[in-house]
Design brief:
Protein name: UspA domain-containing protein
CATH topology of the largest domain: Rossmann fold
Organism: Halobiforma nitratireducens JCM 10879
Strand order of the largest sheet: 3-2-1-4-5-10-9-6-7-8
Strand content: 15-25%
Pfam families: Usp
Family: Belongs to the universal stress protein A family.
Number of helices: 10
InterPro entries: Universal_stress_UspA, UspA
Helix content: 25-40%
Number of domains: 2
CATH architecture of the largest domain: 3-Layer(aba) Sandwich
Shape: globular
CATH class of the largest domain: Alpha Beta
Structural class: alpha/beta
Largest sheet: 10 strands, mixed
Order of helices and strands: EHHEHEHEHEEHHEHEHEHE
Length: 280
């Protein structure tokens, strides 16, 4: 399996790359080949006065390459120019990546609490499963907030086709997963909440995970989906939330469903977002 590891050479990116525990987790789920991608924005030029971008970039990338190679991954470096999220997404699609990893400082102190634009735009447009690796804020030398990426997963489902696709990610995540919490949120907008028993459906999913030795609990909630998923995160403290990027919504993929966008923007820890299957 191949992964794209996106870096803007910031402290957040450095924390993601240099955390050996996170790299080990990626190795456990079957990642063997890392593609380290850095995108030079179109408005940044090597000759800009007072800043030696080119030299800084070369030194940082070489350091990152050595770190990843020491973790026993094959490494390929891509330095490209353009719009970051478009170039990262394009490389991931070209190489057939199984995962794209991007670091994010997480919640902004501003009231709207948006994540960094590259992570946000990748979340809205990615064709590849996306892992937003949450980095602590307010530190000159930040660290990742949840080191063991897949040890405790919180899987949120609305029983849609794409939620089912996200669940199938356990086929490889299970090699690094010890605990899982399966969450469904009932809302007044559900077509017919009495038609099927969500607890029974979650229990069926739990049985599949328990066959793999994963300790599993189920949790049916009622209310606002994004708010209840985030409340479940606070209660169960997963290392990563696993969610499909589109459920019942009929919006285009470029207009990511509000629930998954809220979860990516406001979660305290890591979020893994699984997009719909690409249609021709």
């Amino acid at each position: 399996m191949r992964a794209v590891l996106a870096t803007d050479l910031s402290a957040a990116s450095e924390a993601t790359i240099e955390n050996e525990t996170c790299l080990a987790c990626l190795g456990r789920i079957g990642i063997e080949e890392m593609h380290l991608v850095t995108v030079i924005p179109s408005n940044v030029h090597a000759g800009m006065p007072g800043i030696d971008f080119e030299n800084r970039r070369k030194k940082a990338i070489e350091t990152y390459r050595r770190v990843i190679e020491r973790a026993e991954f094959d490494v390929e470096v891509h330095v490209v120019r353009g719009t970051p999220h478009r170039r990262i997404r394009g490389i991931a699609e070209t190489i057939g990546a199984s995962l794209t990893v991007v670091g994010s400082r997480g919640k902004s102190p501003l009231e709207n609490r948006v994540i960094g634009s590259t992570a946000r735009n990748l979340a809205r447009t990615t064709e590849t499963p996306l892992l937003v690796n949450r980095i602590e804020r307010g530190s000159e030398e930040p660290d990742v907030l949840r080191q063991h990426l897949f040890r405790r997963l919180l899987y949120a489902t609305d029983f849609s086709e794409n939620a089912d696709r996200a669940f199938e990610s356990f086929s490889y995540l299970r090699h690094a997963t010890q605990e899982a919490t399966l969450v469904h949120v009932e809302t007044p907008k559900d077509p017919d909440p009495t038609e099927d028993d969500p607890e029974r459906r979650l229990a069926e999913l739990a049985e599949r995970l328990e066959e793999w030795g994963i300790e599993t609990r189920v949790d049916v909630r009622r209310g606002d989906p994004s708010g209840e998923i985030l409340a479940a995160e606070s209660e169960f403290e997963p290392t990563t939330i696993l969610v499909g990027s589109r459920g019942h919504s009929r919006l285009r993929r470029l207009l990511l469903g509000s629930v998954s966008e809220e979860v990516v923007a406001r979660a305290d820890g890591n979020v893994m977002l699984v997009p719909p299957t690409r249609t021709a």
